[in-house]
Amino acid sequence: MTIATVTHTYQPRGAAKQLLENRAPEILLSGPAGTGKSRACLEKLHLQALKYPGMRALIVRKTQVSLGSTALVTWREHVAKEALAHGEVRWYGGSQQEAAQYRYRNGSTITVGGMDKATKIMSSEYDVCFVQEAIELIEDDWEAITTRLRNGRLPYQQLMADTNPAQPTHWLKQRCDRGATRFLESRHEDNPIYFTDAGTMTEAGRAYIEGKLDKLTGVRYLRLRKGLWVAAEGLIYEGWDPALHLVDRFPIPDAWPRWWSVDFGYTHPFVLQNWAEDPDGRLFLYREIFHTRRLVEDHAKQILSIVTEPVPGVAQLEDEPLATAIAHGRRRWIEPPPRAVICDHDAEGRATLQKHLGMSTVPANKKVLAGLQAGQSRLKVAGDGRPRLAILRDSVVERDQQLVDDKRPACTAEEIPGYVWAVKPGGQLKEEPVKDQDDGCDALRYVVAHRDLRGRPNIRWM
Ligand SMILES: Nc1ncnc2c1ncn2[C@@H]1O[C@H](COP(=O)(O)OP(=O)(O)OP(=O)(O)O)[C@@H](O)[C@H]1O
Ligand SMILES: [Mg+2]
After folding, report:
1. Which among 66, 77, 91, 171 has most CB atoms closer than 10 A?
2. How far is it, in rounded angstroms, from Cα 116 to Cα 277?
3. CATH class for the region spanning 14-191
4. Closest ligand to the CA of 75
């Protein structure tokens, strides 16, 4: 018999160390970007799985899709790397009924899933759970998880979570403030990649903290660099509430008209949004391209490859532009074509886009303030208890890694909480937005203006 010794090193500091030792039933590791929060939670799970045979844990995020790209990478590459290599832990991909999970040789399991696929994960009982980016959850999600924590293989149960800060009125912060959840403040100094034991910044720390985080502005700087639970000042869409305006994906009926809106950009993101309008006039953003450093023709190609397919039985011509293939009946639409493609005023961008989409476009309504006001009123909850505009989760076609690495918004929903009024030198707010990180919000305004500002007389007050 051979007994392999698997060595794994992890040295926690500060809040990460406290997390490892703490047995509070609910605990939150809060802090700016990159302090080692997720790593600490994952290390704790791995340690528990090894120490308590038969333990059941859950790693969860708001949506299945968002989980894949983040927590599991750290898990595979750092936390469970050696154990996976030695077969101590194996990956089980899941089935229709069963959620995916890591299975340990000693019988412990770590299930992974999204709250959007709750039936798969919530039918089991667990000893511990790690919620990643917990601000994305609603409090009902959180409480539902607490009811699943009763497997009894550990001397205690724990719901642990990590997050970057949000507004101070967020339910999660309030939950900590009233003592229901233990609050731990994680700092960059806790991460040995960025700070030495003696507390000096490493080269990687300078590259990340000074090179990236110090370049952030506004509320993103305060939250992601400083770790503060603050509200943005001068928010344009004050009524934006992810619990109301971010909704789970659903199949959109073919009968709902579609609208596309476009904001051109190259160093700034190019944004192309696909909207559907329900019979009551509510607008739903269900897909968007949100990407920097690509040509308009490549964006056109990408969107056409998603909304059309080759006609079965019809020969396809190699290298034929998609717009031409559609025009000649070699490709067909798999969702309704847009009634209008509403674009910002960049003449060259519009001409190029029209050519490569094979569609005409219309210029967006230029009345910025009226468009913003129309957007604000759409966010209000109507008499039927629902707002008149919503974004489906995970609508972005491909997350732009450069934006993600730079901690800049990588989709419209991430832009809105930092979309603010410009400030005059005297400190008063201007009647126009700050013209940065506004690309998704511009496209949103174009579609709203197109639907809501039609035919309104252009009255000037003298
Ligand atoms: N104690 C440690 N030893 C070695 N590497 C660490 C340690 N803590 C964190 N790291 C590494 O630092 C990087 C950032 O850590 P992590 O992803 O956990 O940060 P985070 O606080 O969750 O960031 P975010 O706020 O962006 O989600 C990862 O590559 C992680 O492996
Ligand atoms: Mg993290």
Report:
1. 66
2. 23
3. alpha beta
4. 1
Question: Is 163 close to ligand 1, i.e. is its CB under 6 Å away?
Answer: no
Using alpha carbons, select from 108, 414, 7, 84 the residue that is nearest to residue 242.
Answer: 414
Nearest to 414 by CA among 432, 396, 426, 387: 396
pTM: 0.92
CA of residue 24 to ligand 2 center, whole Å: 20
State in words which class domain 242-452 has.
alpha beta
- Taking the centre of ligand 2 as the mean of its atom positions, its distance from the CA of residue 36, in whole angstroms, is 7
CA distance 140 to 150: 18
From first to last of its 462 residues, what are the pLDDT tens digits of the chain?
556 677 899 999 999 999 999 999 999 999 999 999 999 999 999 999 999 999 999 999 999 888 876 778 899 999 999 999 999 999 999 888 888 999 999 999 999 999 998 888 999 999 999 999 999 999 999 999 999 999 899 999 999 999 999 999 999 999 999 999 999 999 999 999 999 999 999 999 999 999 999 999 999 999 999 999 999 999 999 999 999 999 999 999 999 999 999 999 999 999 999 999 999 999 999 999 999 999 999 999 999 999 999 999 999 999 999 999 999 999 999 999 999 999 999 989 999 999 999 999 999 998 999 999 999 999 999 899 999 999 999 999 999 999 999 999 999 999 999 999 999 998 888 999 999 999 999 999 999 999 999 765 555 544
CA of 77, closest atom in ligand 1:
31
CA nearest to 371, candidates 288, 432, 417: 432
Residues 6+ apart with CB under 8 A from 268: 292, 439
- AA letter at 108: S
Q: Is 314 in the pocket of ligand 1 (CB under 6 A)?
A: no
**Ligand 1: which atom is nearest the Cα of residue 79?**
31
Which ligand is in closest contact with the Cα of 73? 1
Which ligand sits nearest to residue 196's alpha carbon? 1
Q: How far is the CA of 4 from the centre of ligand 2 (A)?
A: 31
Boundaries of every domain in the chain: 14-191, 242-452
Residues whose beta carbons lie less than 5 angstroms from ion ligand 2: 38
